[in-house]
UniProtKB/TrEMBL annotation:
PANTHER family: ARAC-FAMILY TRANSCRIPTIONAL REGULATOR (PTHR43280), HTH-TYPE TRANSCRIPTIONAL REGULATOR EXSA (PTHR43280:SF2)
Modified residues (4-aspartylphosphate): D55
Residue ranges annotated for the Response regulatory domain, each copy included: 3-120
Domain HTH araC/xylS-type: 421-519
Pfam families the UniProt entry points to: GGDEF_2 (PF17853), HTH_18 (PF12833), Response_reg (PF00072)
Keywords annotated in UniProt: DNA-binding, Phosphoprotein, Transcription, Transcription regulation
Name assigned to this protein: Helix-turn-helix domain-containing protein
Gene3D superfamilies documented for this protein: 3.40.50.2300, Homeodomain-like
């Protein structure tokens, strides 16, 4: 039901309009009556009518003056002016105020109803558009946290593909690609305290988002294992040292807020400022490395400060790549040896600081996980974070490396099997035609040389022998049916020369096609 305010100094005019409209459009309107401009303003504010019929000439506050006052308070009000005079000046001023239409007294029934139907249609369309916008806004509000989680996990697990990351950043309206990572690491003490942390994870995540979003405009990751990460933009024009101080202040503020509200000790690691998605992933690894533990006096650390004070070089990128290359070649002895060398180097650099050693190993394995497309980043972080000493960390990492090698081998075997199945299906459908090994290799996107080796390895026979066997088996079946001549069978199974077909058949079966037919009689 709509509310219609009729403002006119003549009661008969008001009542006549109500009767006319109520009879033509029953149960559609609630009517309000105003005998002058002042009363129209009051009722418009109190009743918030959907539509207003306003007479221009009324005692006291005139119609246009009342419209101006109503429009100032309710800009979306739909007003129709009613006048006994066709004054252009009134029409011009009314249009400037936002009046929707004019009716001349005495208003005819059809004109009034047409105006109302137009206003109703306009109102319904506006309502439909608003409902659609609200529904879209609601869907977007549900999708944005998922997009933020996905992008943050991409950066943490180092599998941020340029196009996908850009799409997610677009959804989140992120206009920056340069920044740093901050990692909040929650200490693990007794099993009871760890259980309490697991229960409070969601509340901690919500609280941290509430604290940091207004001031940092950052991406906040979900809690993975015992850590969560923030990816913070670097404001253009701000000196790096100033940003380092601000980051440390934020880290200390978050540490204090978490410990005060949840009673959980945490350490904070901050990575250096880097550019691009890969750079942000690198900053995250740095932040993980410098997370302090409960024995440290300082519980908020910046990677640049640690690197400058220790002078400790990171693992050379070429050493990481050599280890990844050995993984991709499934060379378990080389993988074990190279990882052992890197682990010993890291352990020697951090002889009394196990958390930084663990952070380095987690960062290294995240890089390798991305390279072998293992897709087990969250599980990896949780698994290695649970290790409490270098020995268990090393053993757990080696088990994971071994599992990746086994998985790569299985994937390769499945891929080979799939390729062979496609090739065999292709041959079984085409063996009656002129078909070659080169055509089949091209069909499965392999080089003829590699396809020949793979086919022999998987089937135990070379391609030409396999094709011949298919053709001869089909020829034997057709001969036994006795519905085709031997010459017709020759062409049917893919041979163009009956004499050649006879020689191949005899070499394979031991007798000629004619002799085989006699035996089947």
């Amino acid at each position: 039901m709509y509310t219609l305010l009729i403002a006119d100094d003549e009661a008969l005019e008001r009542e006549g309009l109500e009767l006319m409209i109520g009879h033509a459009m029953p149960d559609m309107f609630r009517f309000l009556h105003a005998e002058n401009g002042r009363r129209a303003i009051q009722l418009a504010e109190e009743g918030r009518p959907d539509f207003i019929f306003m007479d221009i000439k009324m005692p006291g506050i005139q119609g246009l003056e009342a419209v101006r006052e109503i429009m100032a308070r309710q800009p979306g009000a739909k007003v129709v002016m009613i006048t006994a005079h066709d004054y252009f000046a009134y029409a011009k001023e009314g249009l400037a105020l936002g009046v929707r239409n004019y009716l001349l007294k005495p208003a005819r029934r059809e004109e009034v109803l047409d105006v109302l139907k137009g206003l109703i249609a306009e109102t319904e369309e506006a309502k439909r558009v608003r409902d659609e916008q609200l529904a879209l806004q609601e869907k977007l509000s549900q999708l944005l946290p998922l997009a933020e989680n996905e992008l943050s996990l991409m950066l943490m697990l180092e599998y941020a593909q340029e196009v996908e990351a850009d799409q997610l950043a677009g959804m989140l309206n992120l206009q920056w690609r340069k920044g740093y990572a901050m990692v909040l690491s929650f200490a693990k003490h007794t099993p009871k305290e760890w259980a309490s942390f697991q229960v409070a994870k969601k509340e901690i995540y919500d609280a941290v988002k509430q604290w940091v979003k207004p001031g940092l405009s950052c991406i906040v990751s979900p809690v993975v294992g015992h850590q969560m990460a923030l990816f913070v933009p670097f404001p253009p024009g701000r000196p790096g040292y100033t940003q380092r101080v601000i980051a440390l202040e934020w880290g200390e503020r978050l540490r204090s807020q978490v410990e005060e509200r949840f009673g959980l000790p945490i350490s904070v690691g901050i990575g250096s400022i880097r550019e691009g998605w890969d750079g942000l992933s690198r900053s995250y690894r740095e932040a993980v490395r410098v997370c302090a533990d409960e024995q440290d006096i300082v519980s908020v650390r910046h990677y640049d400060d640690i690197a400058e004070s220790s002078g400790r070089p990171a693992i050379p990128l070429d050493e990481e790549k050599k280890l990844l290359d050995a993984l991709l070649r499934h060379d378990k002895p080389e993988v074990t040896e190279r990882f052992a060398q890197l682990f010993e180097r890291l352990e020697a650099a951090e002889p009394r600081h196990y958390p930084r050693l663990r952070g380095d190993v987690i960062g290294l394995l995240l890089y390798l996980s991305r390279g072998v497309e293992a897709g087990d980043g969250p599980d990896l972080i949780e698994d290695l974070s649970a290790c409490e000493d270098p020995a268990s960390l090393r053993a757990s990492a080696l088990r994971r490396l071994g599992g990746w090698i086994d998985g790569l081998r299985e994937r390769k075997e499945r891929s080979r099997s799939h390729v062979l199945q496609r090739a065999i299906l292709f041959v079984s459908q085409r063996f009656k035609e002129e078909i070659s090994m080169e055509q089949t290799a091209e069909y499965v996107n392999l080089s003829p040389y590699y396809f020949s080796k793979l086919f022999k390895l998987q089937t135990g026979e070379n391609f030409s022998d396999y094709l011949t066997r298919l053709r001869i088996e089909e020829a034997k079946r057709l001969i036994a049916e006795r519905s085709l001549s031997l010459k017709e069978i020759c062409y049917e199974v893919g041979y163009k020369d009956p004499n050649y077909f006879s020689r191949v058949f005899k070499k394979s079966v031991g007798i000629t096609p004619s002799e085989y037919r006699q035996q089947t009689e």
